[in-house]
Amino acid sequence: MAVVTRVSQRTYSVISPTSVLALAFHFLLLVSSAITPCFGFSGVGGEDEGNRGGDLYQEILRDEAVARLHQLGKVSDGDGYLERIFMSPAAVRAGNLIHEWMEDAGLRTWVDCLGNVHGRVEGRNASAEALILGSHLDTVVDAGIFDGSLGIISVVSALKVLSINGKLGELKRPVEVIAFSDEEGVRFQSTFIGSAAIAGILPVSALQITDKSGVTIQDALKKNSIEVTEEHLQQLRYDPKSVWGYVEIHIEQGPVLEWVGFPLGVVKGIAGQTRLKVTMRGSQGHAGTVPMSMRHDPMAAAAEAIVLLESLCKHPQDFLSFDGQCKSYSLESLSTSLVCTVGEISTWPSASNVIPGQVTFTVDLRAIDDMGREAVVYELSNQLYQICDRRSVSCTIDRKHDANAVICDSELTSKLKSAAYLGLKRMTGSVQDEVPVLMSGAGHDAMALSHLTKVGMLFVRCRGGRSHSPEEHVLDDDVWASGLAILAFIETQL
Question: DSSP character for 64?
């Protein structure tokens, strides 16, 4: 299908699907070889048509899972749109609902001091290293219903199948699913709060981070009758010796799987991230009485800075110089994986007839190469300070979040690839192509858990690659495919 895009002089041009794939490389780098878009997966057919109930568990892995996704999607703090932020009323209600579904699957359940919801089965050897699976229950503002939730519900559904078949107790190691309380970082501008605590990398000082209303993380938990202290936080950290690995199912949030016609893909690695909060302060004044030549306007400085950021991230080679410390491969990696976004901007006092006294905006930078990302942050900081100096405004740059790129474990990736192949083969009777292998430009809880244990990820196709939007959509049969794949993976632990 051709995609129409606007060009100059109010004319339009057509971009081929091949060009769309090239654009997709800026977000998800396809690293699997010899993949052709011929696996037009749309459902079940052939000799397996009559076996939809039986060992394919359609009622649980598809019908019930899809119904639960839509049910969870209605649990929102927003009126007419989906929003669940850390420890909000809707987030608490969502956690209670997930708690019920975990119990329905035969799991022992609890909520920890950071609001993470746990479900666990000990299997035949409670002292063995545990397999952890999960994703996040929070959302962005005006979200879709699949981001995070799919990774929780698919796993709970697979464990419910094992429970119904009486096989939960036959697992050779404990299996635990966790619905993490905060991954998006919307409320406190600090991502992975829930998973970072489990991994032992959340500093005690994080409990005093405040939201826009001045409420701290500790306050938000206390409001929901959860007491958290430094001792509680230390106790929450899992012992690395007690964990075998972490696996996460997530929607792709990009267009590659849809383009190649495959419902599932495995992840080779996750791009590193840096989030900045930039504050520019100038001289607040009357919009009609201060001459343009005498203004110290932080809004004009911010506008120049944002356009500069776009140029830097589109053409890093025009800004960065590489010596012995910065290798040439960093520049090559940046040219395909670097993305930068200003997603939030605010002014004070925010009145149409007042020159702002302060402007604050966020910067989100992501790249596969950590050294290259650091070089971009360094260059951007220098450029911003120069802009502010020229305009006689002050500039403060706070690093709110850093996460290095993560390479997924080859053993887990191989097992997930085999499980995805087996799940799809059960549905279709045959699979002609290899399961795609992708790089992820989006951050996931697996990044935090990589500090605790080896990690692996399975991506699920989403329509148009859209995410963080109400238009986010996953086919019912692709939800089913993800459930069958993770069931096949967990069955390797029997």
Answer: I
